[in-house]
Amino acid sequence: MLERMNDSEVKAYWENITNVIPESKLKVWRALEAGLKKHQSTETSRVLLKKKAEAGPSAETRIEARRKRVAARVQARKRSMNVMYVGSVQCTGMVRS
Fold first, then answer.
1. What is the largest CA-CA distance in the chain?
2. 3-class secondary structure, 91
3. Which pLDDT belongs to residue 86?
4. Which residues 6+ apart lie within 8 Å of 29 measured at CB?
5. Cβ atoms within 10 A of the Cβ of 84, count?
6. Domain Dynein regulatory complex protein 1 C-terminal, which positions (predicted)?
7. How far is CA 97 from CA 5, 74, 80, 90, 94, in A?
């Protein structure tokens, strides 16, 4: 049968249980815990970035990329219209008909 402990025995038990792991070992465990939390945070961020990359660009990103391509084509067209060659002579400026 189980024996019942009196209050002083219970108090002594809990005081002893707090000293099972020496302070030097607790420092190691605390450092490991901090490192694991940082690692978990890094891995969580990595997984989220991977999911975002696998999902592809957002609609806003695709629209912005298209705007840039169109703007580049417009600029190229403007440059080609401003420079014309007549024979081997380069003429600049808009040519109007």
1. 114
2. strand
3. 55
4. 21
5. 13
6. 12-41
7. 110, 21, 16, 18, 10
